[in-house]
Amino acid sequence: MARPSPSSRLAKRAAALATTALAISARGAAAAKAGSYEVVNTNSLASAMMLGLMDEQNVFILDKAENNSQRLADGRPVWGSFFDLSDNSVTGVSVTTNTFCASGATLGNGTWVVAGGNQAVGYGGAALLPNVSPDAGPYTDYDGTRAIRLLEPGSKTWIDSPSTSTAQVNMLQSARWYPGIEVLEDGSVLFIGGAVGGGYINRNTPNLDPFYQGGGSNPTYEYFPSKGNQTVSQFMGNTSGLNMYPHTYLMPSGKIFMQANFSTVLWDHVNNNETYLPDMPGRVIRVYPASAAVAMLPLTPQNKYTPTILFCGGSVMSDTLWGNYGGPGGDILGITASTDCSSITPEDSQGNQNTAAQYVKEEDLPQGRTMGQFIHLPDGTMVILNGAEKGTAGYTNATYNSAQYNGQAINTEGLAQDPTYVPVLYDPSKPQGKRLSNAGFGASTIARLYHSSAVLLPDGSVMVAGSNPHQDVTLNMPTGTTPQAFNTTYEIEKWYPPYWGQPKPSPQGMPTSIQYGGSPFNITVDGSFMGSSANAKAANTKFAIIRPGFSTHAMNMGQRAVYLDYTYTVNDDASVTYMVNPLPNTKAMNRLVVPGPALFFVTVAGVPSNGKMIMVGTSATGTGNVPFTPTLGSALVSLPAAVNSTKYTATITRAGDSSSSFGLGKIIGIAVAGAAVLALIAIGICLWRRKGKNSRGEKAAARQSAAPWTSRDVGSGPEYKRVDTPVGSVNGGRFGGRRMDSSNTFESYRMHDQGSVIESKEALGGYYDHPRSGSRGGYAQSPLGYEPQGRGSSQGGYQQGWAEHHDGDAGAYYEEGNRYGGQSYDDYPPRSYQQQYHQQQQQYPQQYQQQGGQYHDRQGSGGYGRAR
Ligand SMILES: [Cu+2]
């Protein structure tokens, strides 16, 4: 028998080694992703202000109506798209109304609802004038202030008709921009508060009309499907100013825990009674635009499903600096955001108020953070990502957020600086005060500031997208200025939690629905996965129901995580049979985790399975109608003791039990990943080059260009120029019976193409570049060309700068008399406005009240229904 030659043996050995190296490298590269970000698509088409997981494969993306370069077949820009998780592709979709700063949730029947928004706008976010039909506007977007948009399960068509349409049957009773939202135990939804038009915060200064702000604020709440006329919330008046997107959590008692300004209340929304809880320590503001990361901690059998709400970050500023609709009261760009993490447990699991409830200081974030957002992970931890260390959410037009570039003044618009690129993990299984860590986490390279978003995906990663601190699409901000400028952002990233890259369990018997009460169900994980440490792994398993929520403005509205009790038997073949109890059969649990869709994960030794979309509180096919009364099944049985094997007694060697630290695999992964990353970069460059002339390629080119400034037209049409930064000059409002519209806008800028600059614009202090079309029909004149109007003048007053809102109302002074005299702004004490409150209720205009109150969709009766 001929022996192989030495060289041949060497070649074989080399080949074997190479194969092994490749295998290790592949595993290592996957593991190396743990704790890091990866761009999975460079163009979300619509910048992702809002996200919602539709099913196991699709995520909807919503933006405000703006000049995204992607066009629909009818020529309109997209402000909505769908992200397909199977191939990371994105498709634009028609949205009719302006979704700008809406709120959203899944109803108990699984239908997505996205409600509220802002007016029809044109270039630069300027509101269309009343005499201009939305069809004639450049974006053909319709008023969304009262819109209720629906997305049915399995559908990729938004049901969205204009608020002004008589055919619109899904309408809010009144305009809501930044409303609070909470899904109730019957699967219906409650909306509370919001602004009417817009602004940095929801008040004028001085704050003479805390409830209504002369028509700028909406202090009422209402339901969908309707349960009657909207009613004034005392809390909205008490927290006047800093009360947009209030934090709400339905409690076991049926009351709503609600936090805004520095106040906290347990609110019986049925009887409209409020019980005040302690103020936020240090008066840290947690609502928009301070925008803390806020979440209910995971509900577990160990904590007896007791609700605790955790707040991390936000802002502390003086009352003066908080300013008003027009913007902050001064330069806030250098103000470091709060590091404070505090939590409170308002009730026990059965809905008994914890009368001694106090906010408990847990610990400090490693850096101050505004616009951080909590994402529940299926290993029981929560990650905070996105945001900035300085400033707040929102944008404005003030001297302090302008920068000089090449001798030109540009407005950087955004109110946040110093993006927080490194996530922080919160592990509630650790002792209080030792729960936060960012050890081992890589940094993102993409700023995720105002109007960014994030949501848990079924594969256990976190989708991160958006960021657009501008009134309209802005792709040409220079780098290296002070303050730092940021572009409208389209990249979609995945952030990979520490468990990423480990072999996943593939459980059998995953449920399609989980009820309140009833019999336990069985799930098995095979022996090849459980292996020699089957006993330990079985004991270290978690069954999570996670509702990822509607993501916008650093909030995941409706996000919850609840873990199920279980026992197990380790079988002879190392497989494990789990016996899992459903949710407790209590009304309290029905409220803590309301009916509707959620992801179900099985996490073994810290590594989650893929999440399965299930229904909570109904059958898998759900109920077509809401509201409904979920059935409470039989009481949970006492689970028998676990049965371990005598054979599979090894300990778990790999780190992974919901640990924030990284094991050896991670370190090896990092080492081998270097080459892989280089390869990926090379591939990325090739792909980028291949993209050639499409608009995204151009944007990538702009980003990577040596020149920090692009000379590319930011618009898509030959006529488009970014213009019309609005400043409203407004008084009155919809509540006052006077429609608010932009009566003044001012020219924005485009920092190139100076040949087309019109002299008179240049004289306006650095804003220049008239639209090439030469026509601004339907758009208001620049107020910079006017003498400022004083408050109370015939034209009303306006504030220079406009902050968050752009549809022309922003920067408005909502003025409608001094109903309350000279009280200054603050968090109003609970009782000081009782008298006025009652008067207010009577005064409250009824013109927007809905007639039928119930939405009928093809089923025709029984409240809101959807075709099945
Ligand atoms: Cu917003």
Present as ligands are: copper (II) ion
The helical percent reads 10-25%
Strand content: 15-25%
N/C terminus separation? 73 Å
Q: Judging from the principal axes of the Cα atoms, what is the shape?
A: globular
Number of continuous helical runs: 10
CATH homologous superfamily classification of one domain: Immunoglobulins
Query: Which CATH architecture of one domain is right?
Result: Sandwich
| Largest β-sheet summary | 6 strands, antiparallel
Whole-number mean pLDDT: 78
Q: Under CATH, the topology of one domain is which?
A: Immunoglobulin-like
**Coarse structural class:** alpha+beta
Q: At the first level of CATH, what is the class of one domain?
A: Mainly Beta
**Total beta-strand segments:** 46
Protein name: DUF1929-domain-containing protein
InterPro entries: Gal_Oxase/kelch_b-propeller, Gal_Oxidase_central_sf, Glyoxal_oxidase_N, GO-like_E_set, Ig-like_fold, Ig_E-set
Pfam families: Glyoxal_oxid_N (PF07250), GO-like_E_set (PF09118)
Tell me about this structure:
It holds the Pfam family Glyoxal_oxid_N. By secondary structure, this protein is an alpha+beta fold. Among the domains are: 513-665, Immunoglobulin-like, CATH 2.60.40.10; 668-704. Helix content is 12%, strand content 22%. The strands form 13 sheets. Strands 5-4-3-2-35-36 form a six-stranded antiparallel beta sheet, with no helix packed on it. Strands 32, 34, 37, 40, 41 and 42 form a six-stranded mixed beta sheet that branches. Helix 1 (6-32) packs across helix 7 and helix 7 packs across helix 8. Mean pLDDT is 78; it is low at 1-6, 14-21, 655-811 and 815-868. The structure holds copper (II) ion (CU).
